[in-house]
What does this fold into?
Amino acid sequence: MKKEAIDPIMQHDQIEVIPSSLISKRYTACGPLFHRWRCMNRMRLFGVAVTILGSLSATTGAYALNFDLGNGISLDWDTTLRYSVAQRIEDRDSKLIADPNSDDGNRNFDRWSLIKNRFDVLTEADLNFGEVGPLYNFGLFTRAHGWYDFVYNQSNDHDSPLTSNNISVAYDSFTDKTEKWHGRKVEMLDYFLYSGFDVGGLDTS
It folds into this structure.
């Protein structure tokens, strides 16, 4: 199984945590500490909340089906569905933008843009034939994984065609390899035959 590529840049604001005891003491007096807290950018806090809720609301559903095909043959089919979403909540890094040779990843996603909007499917099937000649519990097992991410199947937020290092695609598009590994793919994880048989009176598998 190939190692999946690392997700592109995702940066978070650093939010200063002020103890509630200090806030309550300064609240009525409207002291400097309270004003400092009150004047924090509300959208930053909202962005953090969205990111946290997004990670918590990722749904997973597992489904199992069993089929009796007759003549001792059975099929067990299990499928797991997952949805995940993530968002960038910080502005582009000005230091990275200043370097035209390493600014693409930073420019691809603007503030509040989704960096992941992905469905995953993991499915496995176990086809068991029972006894086949000298073999017993003979079967075929397969497992596959596929995903589709809407973010990487569309244009991105890159806004600097003069500094783009993409040659094969437009400046505001993802490369073919990025679309392949992040946008959409199906891969076989396992496929093998299994069985049990008798060797000198000993059960072997």
